[in-house]
Amino acid sequence: MGRKWNNIKEKKASKDANTSRVYSKFALEIYVAAKQGEPDPESNQALKFVLERAKTYNVPRQIIDRAIEKAKGGTEENYDELRYEGFGPNGSMLIVDALTNNVNRTASNVRAAFGKNGGNMGVSGSVSYMFDATAVFGIEGKSADEVLELLMEADIEVRDILEEEDSVIVYAEPDQFHAVQEAFKNVGITEFTVAELTMIAQNDVTLPEDAQVQFEKLIDALEDLEDVQRVYHNVDLGE
Q: Where is this protein localized, as stated in its record (predicted)?
């Protein structure tokens, strides 16, 4: 896949010194998932998925419980899932996923973040065709060969299995997320360094230093927006 997943996640975590930002985004995502079905992860796959992600980001239990209890409370807050696509410096590409209770506010804020940081919004489909929806898992304590063998025994085909630093990273079709997860859990693997449904660029680009500085400001501006949940891009940010 050509993407150093651990490096990207560590870079993001180091930039998120204000972890309350990360936690608040997870709280909203958990609330929306719990509202969409039963507030029980065993019967609500969307909730189960976001809780697995939250675990890899060390979201505190009290934040998770508070979001689920809020969903049980029957509040009438409605949120829309939105996706924006756009271009950054030197033709770099970005996909922005948002959850919002005010579509006009979110669209205006996302457009402003692009415009103030060397980018511009694109139309739907202008960028996403260059990305692949992908399920990604990271585990420790196994070799790539061992992981391949256990997935083959579970009759699961994956796109790629790579050893990256201290982890084995599994890339699979998005509809195989729960199957891969269960295959691991059936052999006692319940802790993941990564458990994501994500968008991975088919080809990464490298920016000159000045453009990369501007691009990172664009990423920060987008991720600082309250309604933005995740930002995907095709830039190799290096080590």
A: Cytoplasm
Look up the pTM and report it.
0.88
pLDDT tens figures, 165-199: 788 999 999 999 989 999 999 999 988 988 899 99
Q: Do domains 5-72 and 80-129+203-233 have the same CATH topology?
A: no
The set of residues, in sequence order, having a beta carbon less than 8 Å from that of 3 and lying 6+ positions away, is: 200, 201, 204
The CATH fold assigned to 130-201 is Alpha-Beta Plaits (3.30.70)
**Domain spans, the chain:** 5-72, 80-129+203-233, 130-201
d(CA 163, CA 184) in angstroms, rounded, equals 17
Cα–Cα distance list, 224 to 24, 53, 171, 194 (Å): 11, 20, 28, 22
User: For domain 80-129+203-233, which CATH number applies: 1.10.3630.10, 3.30.70.980, 3.40.190.10, 3.40.50.150?
Assistant: 3.30.70.980
Residue 8 is predicted with a pLDDT of 47
pLDDT band per the 50, 70, 90 thresholds, residue 2: very low
Q: Return the beta strands (E) in 165-213 as ranges.
A: 167-172, 194-201
Q: What is the rounded average pLDDT of the residues 190-211?
A: 92
Q: Residue 208: its pLDDT value, please?
A: 94
Which pair of structure tokens corresponds to residue 95? 């996909």
The Cα–Cα gap between 94 and 152 comes to 34
